[in-house]
């Protein structure tokens, strides 16, 4: 059985289509990533699947329950950790967990046992009686994940689980997420715009852009789709270089950016010398040249013609990160 099945899911805000006709399925026990730049529609998709937002059209089921006709059962069977923090700052970690357990009407003896088990899982058992106000960003995130698991959901929704966290804390959190999936068999759907995060955690990745899915597969297969190697050339005259080399028959794809060119071709090592010679013959300076195997960044570029970084961290992200730091 599929943990999640989505057919033609669409969300419009007035005349603007934020999510456009999405269809995909997620198997039980899978870690599935929605990767894309800010505004791609990731959070809107998660909000619809977790019944927080009504779709404009299309349908979806979570754990076999229809998100529009069976909202209560969907909610009972999922755990949600969204971007905006919802912990009570003045309560201890234990109290936050306990409050959530009461909301879900988990009997007291089971509740106490479960809370301790989960706090141990995220290594917060030693700090269970400290008030959340004193917690670091990473500790809060771990507590939110533990809390989202208290009612034993089969599917966990993680919206940008490591946004604004430092690399070390991010790594740490990835380990918990992997552990949850492996040890508890929980299906996880997460959104991210960190390539590395999607690459590390997700069994399959749907790359989203402008409300649609532009590619969906395992990370390896997506990279194979791009094929060959990627040469990146930085040059102050990249426009000229683009015109000079674009018609080389070996080139599978070539993209012009602000100060660089990316070229997709097989056996890059063989052709680098030829490209450098052509640049030199045309008096085009080259500041740097590098060859690498395709990354998810290249996959995004291949399918959209833009880099995710060009889309950039917008004001919304910076604001959220600032909020997290302040908290
Ligand atoms: N309630 C709303 N009303 C109007 N537009 C909205 C609303 N919620 C989201 N949008 C718009 O829908 C688009 C998709 O937003 P969404 O938050 O789903 O993107 P995202 O991929 O999750 O991006 P981010 O990484 O910034 O969260 C954006 O252009 C956003 O401005």
From TrEMBL:
GO MF entry, a single one: ATP binding
Biological process annotations from GO: daunorubicin transport; doxorubicin transport
PROSITE patterns cross-referenced by the UniProt entry: ABC_TRANSPORTER_1, ABC_TRANSPORTER_2
Membrane topology note: Peripheral membrane protein
GO cellular component assignments: plasma membrane
SUPFAM superfamilies, sorted: P-loop containing nucleoside triphosphate hydrolases (SSF52540)
Localization annotation: Cell membrane
InterPro entries for the chain: AAA+_ATPase, ABC_transporter-like_ATP-bd, ABC_transporter-like_CS, DrrA, DrrA1/2-like_C, P-loop_NTPase
Residue stretches making up the ABC transporter domain: 4-235
Keywords: ATP-binding, Cell membrane, Membrane, Nucleotide-binding, Translocase, Transport
The family this protein is said to belong to: Belongs to the ABC transporter superfamily. Drug exporter-1 (DrugE1) (TC 3.A.1.105) family.
Protein name: ABC transporter, ATPase subunit
Lineage, highest ranks first: Archaea, Methanobacteriati, Methanobacteriota, Stenosarchaea group, Methanomicrobia
């Amino acid at each position: 059985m599929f943990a999640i099945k989505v057919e033609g899911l669409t969300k419009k805000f007035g005349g603007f289509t934020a999510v456009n006709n999405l269809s995909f399925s997620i198997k039980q026990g899978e870690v599935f990533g929605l990767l894309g730049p800010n505004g791609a529609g990731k959070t809107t998709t998660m909000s619809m699947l977790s019944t927080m937002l009504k779709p404009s059209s299309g349908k979806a089921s979570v754990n076999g329950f229809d998100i529009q006709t069976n909202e209560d059962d969907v909610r009972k069977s999922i755990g949600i950790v969204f971007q905006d923090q919802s912990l009570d700052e003045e309560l201890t970690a234990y109290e936050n967990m306990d409050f959530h357990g009461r909301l879900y009407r988990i009997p007291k003896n089971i509740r106490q046992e479960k809370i301790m088990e989960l706090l141990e899982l995220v290594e917060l058992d030693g700090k269970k009686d400290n008030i959340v106000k004193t917690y670091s960003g990473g500790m809060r995130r771990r507590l939110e994940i533990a809390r989202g698991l208290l009612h034993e959901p089969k599917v966990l929704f993680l919206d940008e689980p490591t946004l604004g966290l430092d690399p070390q804390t991010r790594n740490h959190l990835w380990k918990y997420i992997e552990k949850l999936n492996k040890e508890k068999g929980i299906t996880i759907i997460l959104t991210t715009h960190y390539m590395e995060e999607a690459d590390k955690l997700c069994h399959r990745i749907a790359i989203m852009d402008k409300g649609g899915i532009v590619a969906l597969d395992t990370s390896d297969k997506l990279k194979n789709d791009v094929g060959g190697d990627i040469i990146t050339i930085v040059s102050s005259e990249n426009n000229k270089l683009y015109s000079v080399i674009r018609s080389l028959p070996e080139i599978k794809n070539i993209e012009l950016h602000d100060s660089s060119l990316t070229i997709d071709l097989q056996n890059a090592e063989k052709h680098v010398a030829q490209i450098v010679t052509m640049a030199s013959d045309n008096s085009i300076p080259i500041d740097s040249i590098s060859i690498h195997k395709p990354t998810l960044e290249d996959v995004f570029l291949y399918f959209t013609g833009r880099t995710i970084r060009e889309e950039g961290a917008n004001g919304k992200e910076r604001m959220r990160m600032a909020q997290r730091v302040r908290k």
